[in-house]
Amino acid sequence: MKELWELYSSFFRVGLFTFGGGYAMLPMLQKEIVEKHGWATEEELMDYYAIGQCTPGVIAVNTGTFIGSKTKGVVGGLAATLGVITPSIIIITLIAAFFMNYKDSETVAHAFAGIRVAVTVLVGTSVWKIAKKSLIDLPTILIAAAVLVLNLLTNVSPIISVVASAAAGILLKAREGRAGK
Amino acid sequence: MSTLLRLAWEFFKAGLFAIGGGLATLPFLYDISRRTGWFTTRDITDMIAVSESTPGPLGVNMSTYVGFHTAGVAGAVSASLALVLPSFIIILIISNFLKKYKENRVVQNAMYGIRPASVAMITYACLLVARAALLNTELFAVTGALTDLISWKAILLGIAVLASYLKFKKHPIVYILGAAVIGIVFRF
After folding, report:
1. Domain coordinates of chain B in residue numbers?
2. Separation in Å, CA of A31 to nearest CA in chain B
3. How many domains does chain A have?
4. ipTM of the assembly?
5. Would you say B18 and B29 are in contact if contact means Cβ atoms under 8 Å apart?
6. Residue A130, domain extent
7. From A87, which residue of chain B is nearest by alpha-carbon distance?
8. Among A134, A154, A181, B179, which one is least packed by beta carbons within 10 Å?
9. Would you state the torsion angle of the CA atoms of residues A49, A50, A55, A59, taken in this order, to the nearest 10 degrees?
């Protein structure tokens, strides 16, 4: 029961402090999930993010379900999922009910301009940390470079990036296995 | 009751078919708006603006907003739960599969390729937010002066956040709240 509550409250914090798309929760996940509770490793976060990109639904919810169910089965997945969506439901309902001019507020705009800077830096350092663990040899560096260039130059769907990289991983490792024999 | 069920059904479909995060739900919202008249396309634009200035996943923010406008708090809750239900089920299945085949060579090799791709996709997303956070593309378009392109205030704040994060390693919440306050005080 205690762990379920911890899952719920950790993901509640993730939902409350994620400003931006799914990528923006990476620093929060690293702190809450990897460092504080050890529910998943940084490498696993990368797996979940990739799978979350190619499966339907909200990436934050997908990641929550993964980590929750890994830790505490179906109920754990439920606790994490409900945790990550509760702040949004409360905040948006309040805004929709009372502060429809909220989005036109200059103070909010200034606050978010500041938050965007912090998010850039926090996500940047998170990515750097994970890159050091995931880009371990020439093939992984080439895969990352290829996906980044593809994203910069085209509107390629994340599904294609993920499926192609998975295929590249399987093919490269298979060749390596044969060469090793 | 029937409104709640219809809301849930519409958002269940959006949750089942929108792949690739919150923005992928947009075409579904336009479709729902056209067919049901629950909200206008103008409302969708407003929703995006609200969503961009609130925490949390865009998709959930959208479903809460539409649900509340259509059927109050019960509508907000049922639309949001319906939105996340399909991916919840799908991820449970994939998660069990991964647990079972964690030691499988092919799965491990696929993950070996997928991780750098994830790093690259997040780097790309980070570059996009960096452009919005650190550059004044609108001002630059007007004046054409390179010094106007860079938002010096933002760069300074960025350096300060980076230095203090590397040194003190406090919880990300601390830096997010601090940057919000600085943004308000120094009118970013």
Report:
1. 2-100, 103-133, 135-188
2. 7
3. 2
4. 0.88
5. no
6. 2-134
7. B56
8. A181
9. 20
